Amino acid sequence: MAEHDDHxxxxxxxxxxxxxxxxVGGGQVAQRxxxxxxxxxxxxxxxxxxxxxxxEAMADTGEIRWERRRYQDGDLADxxxxxxxxxxxxxxxxxxAEAERTRTWCVRSxxxxxxxxxxxxxxxxxxxxxxxLTTTSQGRxxxxxxxxRDAIVEGLRDGTxxxxxxxxxxxxxxxxxxxxxxxxxxxxxxxxxxxxADVVIADRLGPRDLLDELPPHVEVIDxxxxxxxxxxxxxxxxxxxxxxxxxxxxxxxxxGGDPFVFGRGMEEAQALAAEGIACTVVPGIxxxxxxxxxAGIPVTHRGVAHEFTVVSGHVAPDDPRSLVDWEALARxxxxxxxxxxxxxxxxxxxxxxxHGKSPDTPVALVQEGTTAAQRRVDATLATVGERVVAxxxxxxxxxxxxxxxxxxxxxxxxxxx
Length: 417
Ligand SMILES: C[S@@+](CC[C@H](N)C(=O)[O-])C[C@H]1O[C@@H](n2cnc3c(N)ncnc32)[C@H](O)[C@@H]1O
Prior knowledge:
The protein is an alpha/beta fold. It contains 14 helices and 17 strands.
């Protein structure tokens, strides 16, 4: 076994695909390390009399082979890499001694000094693995390594730390779902792409606060203000996307919620495709689920609603352009979530009642959900048309119809969006 050693560890990336790896001990350490070994394609044998439920599940699904017994000499035969992490100190010593004898790189969770390899704190971002090691066994401080790793990964993900080639992303378009409005509710990928963009074309809805954080050189365009000229508004937006990419820019089309939930995202993707321009689609948290949730309304609840249906209410039920079967919706027992329906809610409520839905069905309107201005107004199908007017509910609002509205009461204010 190595004597006290002040030399720095030599970092390396092991390519373990198809290679035998032995793990001694099936406890929490194995549970934490096994997923990365499995992801690396290693041929893993676990030697341990017991295992945590998660480790056992990995054996059940065939991701690892589990020998339910104590370690015995010879277990490391033909092994490339060993992880020794059992609660049995004698077994750990014996396995580590065998590893030394057989020249197998060996990590020991209980004795960093005796180990011949250390596991770095690792993280991944966009095809890059970040591995952080403290230099010597004396200075080993896994928490510090993990904190440095977190800072690097977070910085890369949100774009505050960008490698030079990252700063100048290749020209292209990303259709980014920005979530319902709270700037914390955009995805990590969306936020990083935003930080790397040259041009951002943004809708009124979505996390507009994030636009203030962009560097001054980024051109921010309000989609609602793009002049149409001879186009329709959507065509003008499509054309703006195309023009900026063709000018060599990296463009983010920032949309509210999810790009494909009443977001016309696919029309934009198709317009780009017609010009031979690929686009990256980044899903977003849709207001249809998150806004009710932020107001304490679950769109499903066990024993109450087994389905939820998201409907656009931008045209009235009797409008010949309507594609919605209100009669069928009135027969559903589950939750109806209406978007873009503030103006037409009176007519919609009447149609649902006419087709058999109870006038007492609870309704909630949640305006500007997840933002500082969020407000909730409760009604029933019979009263909602009047309540919207009396309470001056304005778009954007999500309207929830169904028993889930009343199911969760939160008098103590314990639920926070
Ligand atoms: C054109 S749709 C876009 C929906 C979006 N793609 C999504 O997935 O949330 C706009 C409608 O979404 C709803 N909406 C979006 N954000 C909202 C918010 N923060 N609060 C309430 N309603 C919101 C409103 O019904 C609004 O009229």
